[in-house]
Amino acid sequence: MLNGKKVLYSGMQSTGNLTIGNYLGALKNWVNLSDEYECFFMVANEHSITVRQDPAELRKRARALLTLYIAAGIDPEKNCLYYQSHVPAHAELAWILNCYTYMGELSRMTQYKDKSAKHADNINAGLFTYPVLMAADILLFQSDVVPVGIDQKQHLELTRDIAMRFNSIYGDVFTVPEAYIGEVGRRIMSLQEPEKKMSKSDENPNAYILMMDDKDTIIRKFKRAVTDSETCIKYSESKPGVSNLIDIYASCTGKSTAEIEKEFEGKGYGDFKLAVGETVTDVLVPIQQRFADLEKNKDYIDSVIKNNAEKASYFANKTLRKVQKKVGFPELIR
Ligand code: ATP
Ligand code: LTN
User: Fold this and answer.
1) Above 90 in pLDDT, residue 73?
2) Going by CATH, does the domain composed of 7-186+298-327 fall within 3.40.50.620?
3) What is the CA(199)–ligand 1 centre distance, in A?
4) Is 197 a catalytic residue?
5) Angle of CA points 118, 121, 124, to nearest 5°
6) Residue 119 and residue 112: Cα distance in Å, rounded?
7) Ligand 2 atom closest to Cα of residue 12
8) pLDDT band for position 201 (50/70/90)?
9) Mean pLDDT of all residues in 132-153
10) Which terminus of the chain has a lower count of CB atoms within 10 Å, N or C?
11) Got the DSSP string for 257-283?
12) Average confidence score pLDDT of the chain
């Protein structure tokens, strides 16, 4: 608890441009939950370097991501938005937690398996211990709830295991967090291969809708979305393409699957795809406009970054000091 509220914590890597998968699976829930909780939203630029990055590009993307958090509706006066690399406690706690995490646990992580297959020329130790840094992020803030897409569930379970293991040795040091995974939008699929998750690192740009795509691009990509040889708009496991479009439409409009099926009864895929494209455009355009305005206001974004780095460090250091004491590191002599 912080200021009488439960603590909500989440972050995203500053690699690539966000897709509607990132938005509907995570960012949208952050905005919806932010009034109810004391929130910390972090830009995971330390996680980003587990895959090789261009330095200038990484710096630019981190700032764009933080700006996009605000453009999507997160109020930087009420919530703490910051860069992971501005708070050294993340890396320090990650080291300690590395010593309480087993190789076997980390080698079972599906994201590690996927990413090491994809980047076979650079299977670095950071890629392997990535979930420990994520556990450190979350545990440093004594977080109660962590809103993420379903692909991060396994990392959250590991975080809970690490927290409980540490607590069972040293007493109640960490709050054991819960994942918050939304009902709709938890797993948005590729528009080209609907059995695969929509990913910003997909080689085929038609597979994803970026949050910064313009209207024509959005409509064109939905038009080309892979469906099936039938024509009816029905949610079914055997129709992953159409079901994914229904999920996207449901998530953007708040309508239920049954309502959507009824709305498009007797209509074809062409009409439905156009409606999905227009709805997604209506959601994204205001965010894009706010983003463009915010980007021009350099001093404002700088002040958010500066103030929040201090605030985040203050809370993170409190937990870090407690942990250091528990494991037996001597206090600094002043
Ligand atoms: P990449 O695919 O390039 O590895 P990513 O798109 O998964 O990256 P992350 O920074 O790893 O991006 O994810 C940020 C947040 O967005 C996480 O909470 C993740 O669960 C969520 N998310 C990512 N893709 C989807 C998706 N297709 N559907 C729902 N949520 C998603
Ligand atoms: N691994 C997460 C990003 C992330 C995160 C976190 C999410 C890093 N640290 C802490 C929630 C809480 C991902 O989405 N790929």
Assistant:
1) yes
2) yes
3) 7
4) yes
5) 90
6) 10
7) 3
8) confident
9) 97
10) C
11) HHHHHHHTTT--HHHHHHHHHHHHHHH
12) 96
**Residue 216 structure tokens:** 């024509």
Domain residues of the chain, as ranges?
7-186+298-327, 205-292
Task: Characterise 328 by phi-psi region: left (phi > 0), alpha (psi -120 to 50), beta (else).
Answer: left
Catalytic residue from among 6, 153, 200, 223: 200
Q: Is the pLDDT of residue 184 over 90?
A: no
What is the spatial distance between Cα 200 and Cα 213, in angstroms, rounded to a whole number? 12
For ligand 1, atom 22: residue with the closest CA = 22
What are the structure tokens assigned to 121, written together?
């020329």
> Topology of 205-292 in CATH?
Tyrosyl-Transfer RNA Synthetase (1.10.240)
pLDDT value at 166 more than 90: yes
| Rounded distance from Cα 149 to ligand 2 centre (Å) | 10
Contacts of 7 (CB under 8 A, 6+ apart): 1, 37, 38, 39, 40, 141, 142, 143, 144, 145, 175
pLDDT at 1: 84
Ligand closest to the CA atom of residue 10: 2
